[in-house]
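Re: your question from the hallway

Yes, I did run it. Sequences:
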Amino acid sequence: MSVTTVNINEKTAKYTVIKQHICHKIESGQWPQHYKVPSENELTQQFDVSRMTARRALQELTEQGILVRAQGSGTFVATFKSQSSLLEIRNISDEIHERGHKHHAKQLMLKSITVSEEVAILLNLKANEQVFFSQVLHFENDQPIQLEQRYVNAALVPEYLLQDFTDITPHEYLSDVAPLTEATHEIEAVLANDDACQFLTISNTEPCLQVKRRTWSTKGIVSLAILTAAGSKYRLGNHLVF
Amino acid sequence: MSVTTVNINEKTAKYTVIKQHICHKIESGQWPQHYKVPSENELTQQFDVSRMTARRALQELTEQGILVRAQGSGTFVATFKSQSSLLEIRNISDEIHERGHKHHAKQLMLKSITVSEEVAILLNLKANEQVFFSQVLHFENDQPIQLEQRYVNAALVPEYLLQDFTDITPHEYLSDVAPLTEATHEIEAVLANDDACQFLTISNTEPCLQVKRRTWSTKGIVSLAILTAAGSKYRLGNHLVF
DNA sequence: ATGCAATAGTTGTATATACAACTATTGCCA
DNA sequence: TGGCAATAGTTGTATATACAACTATTGCAT
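Structure:
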């Protein structure tokens, strides 16, 4: 006769127990910064597990930035002084959807082709290379909230201007065409220029949040987006939107 | 006689080879979103490795958000449409040091104790709970660049006002006293108030970048910091500073 | 045809083992 | 004492194995 046992309580894996034990030591102050934590072999004995299990606990805590490992030397509590936080930069339509079921609309204002030298420098291109430009105004509940001005490397995304961006945002289109990219950002507080004032229906004395976002693929820079939002209209939470 | 062989080229571990292979398939578009990637057993055969090695490759790509795994079903290419980027929020002294060996100074402007109801609400405290306040001006090369106004939960950090912050910043002190915390942020573009204008030596029409940062420990909210920087003076790179 | 049990396939956890690569210490020899 | 080789200890990579947990399909009995 066989009996099937069912775990009602959440099973806690062995490596999780070890992780919690180590976290507790650090949180309670017993293990200060740079403290040498028990080696894999020591944990193996203390918790009566295999070395691979002890290793997994140390490994995952290292990935979380709580421990630091050095081959040949040992594992140590990381310095948490210069612990840095992260701010998420998100897709604007995702953002608006999650902030309550508000309506997100967008309006394409302008599409053009440029060969300007200034713009080429912004994109790290040569002066004679083609750049596409698009200007999209994003709405939330019929209120304009963000102006998106985007320069796109024509060589990498030749069909960019053929899109009309009614179904997807420029960001979504580029993510499809040139996936697995990296991005760098600059954030500034600025006064909007005349165009932006008009589109966002604000006065030219109102401070705006401006994010410049450069995205890269393995073949080079894909686009530079300049997003401008009126500071008082669009307060950002734990993340910026794009 | 024994011969020692030395690897001149960087050794590439087997699991790394598998990771690169998978990444290539995805980057080149051969494996689209939601594509079912080979199972651990299949990879084991294809690459002539053990299952644990194949597993490690899938595991690490999952941690990077490139794959998604479902027990019992399989491993799939993740959706990269709403891929979100991250903006790092860093310690201000670290930041200045790394931007070239510029000098970072700070000047403590004010320390006080408050029991104001407004402030208590900001910190999610009851109206009668004590709050400390500090105001520190940060300099880079003798130029004021950031004003840091900070409200601190007195119950959690009773000795906050005893510090004079000549050696460490308030942020560093709090990180020591209440480590392993989480934080939420709000970013706004604002016009500086009169105090801030005076300290930062800017006019009251100049837009400023303002970050509100709430830090939490397991015992509750620790502090609310309001950091104000003149937009034109302090353009932020890939990270905000604190 | 419907419902249900058995089954094959997949990922998750855990162990035992072996060797490689690196570090710090020990101890010997000059 | 100074320099160097041997050694012990630590983390990194890799394999083989076993079983648990979950999912989707297959196939049988009603």
